[in-house]
Design brief:
331 residues; alpha+beta; Rossmann fold; five-stranded mixed β-sheet; 10 helices; 15 strands
Length: 331
């Protein structure tokens, strides 16, 4: 690292300590504590609607599809009415039920459940149809029903979704070929370029749809309906990022291998892109090692697991013991 670069980084340390801007990625999800279900304005209709709606809300809030019928939560569902904040009529035969977030979170914590905060990883959905005559549109233009099902399932699970947009013809064709071949790495890079945290790929053939994903939940695959793929991905993300009490905290990250300002920018951006991170502050420069302080929501173990996702930062096998996260920046 040159003296000029070291001086510039030292100035950045000072700016960080003075409360400079932080970076973050992910999406804030609204409406986690409200659900629309079948019901009417009678007392018995409202009681039944409260139970049905609470099951859906608990799945969103805990990130666990199995939570809807978890025996450990039977008493919570039996007393769903006491957690209701409002009932609101919508379409005929339907009612929107909203719950008191603080009371529900406390009840879930007392039942040993983990809470998933409103800030959640943003998933880029790529649909590649191999059907005869299908367009090479990555956003599901040839599969409107499939896209609709994904949107509905994403809403039901509180999983924010994004769709490819603004690509040039050559780039879209290249990514379409990657999608048909199941190459997730270039699609994950596309997700990063579009501000998303991971990618969900659906490859449509006459025999059915094959699903795969790469991102904060690691790499995985599923087959079958769109809703089943979304459920599997949401469960993976929920298990990683839901935390007891949705706690907030700070942790130190030491990043080795930073040799210049572009390296600093890459390390800072990689840390800020972690879904649970809400602030990144550079504290110290020591040779080619930078010391960052991260502010985060949730479980520190989930944050550590997210760093095994790949990207520019890798666990540092050469680093010594310590409470800090030890990382190395890939060239």
């Amino acid at each position: 690292m040159s003296p000029a670069t070291r001086i510039t980084l030292a100035l950045l340390v000072g700016l960080a300590g003075a409360g400079g801007p932080s970076l973050a990625r992910g999406a804030l999800v609204e409406g986690l504590y409200e659900s629309v279900v079948q019901g009417d304005a009678t007392e018995s209709g409202r009681a039944a609607a409260a139970t049905d709606a609470l099951r859906q809300v608990v799945v969103r809030v805990t990130g666990r599809g199995a939570a809807a019928y978890d025996p450990a939560l039977a008493s919570l569902y039996a007393d769903a009415r006491r957690l209701v904040r409002t009932f609101r009529s919508t379409a005929p035969g339907q009612i929107a039920v909203s719950f008191d977030a603080a009371s529900l979170d406390l009840s879930l914590q007392r039942a040993g459940q983990r809470i998933w905060s409103r800030e959640r990883p943003l998933t880029l959905v790529v649909l590649a149809s191999g059907r005869s005559g299908a367009s090479h549109d990555l956003a599901g233009g040839s599969e409107p029903e499939l896209r609709h099902d994904l949107v509905q399932a994403g809403h039901a699970r509180g999983l924010p979704l994004a769709w490819p947009a603004g690509l040039g013809a050559a780039d879209e064709e290249a990514r379409y070929q990657d999608a048909l071949a199941g190459r997730l790495e270039p699609l994950r890079e596309l997700a990063r370029q579009l501000g998303a945290d991971g990618v969900l790929l659906g490859r449509v053939t006459p025999a059915g749809t094959a699903w795969s994903w790469l991102g904060p939940a690691g790499e995985g695959s599923a087959s079958g309906a769109a809703s089943e793929a979304l459920q599997a991905l949401a469960d993976r993300l929920g298990s990683q990022f839901a935390a007891a009490g949705a706690a907030t905290g700070q942790i130190v990250a030491l990043v080795r291998g930073v040799r210049d300002l572009p390296g600093y920018a890459a390390a800072n951006a990689a840390l800020a892109s972690l879904p649970s991170v809400n602030s990144v502050a550079l504290e110290e420069v020591s040779g080619e090692t930078l010391r960052f302080r991260l502010g985060f929501d949730g479980d520190p173990d989930a944050l550590r697991r997210a760093l095994h996702d790949g990207g520019r930062l890798l666990p540092d096998d050469d680093a010594g013991p310590g409470g800090a996260i030890q990382l190395v920046l890939k060239p």
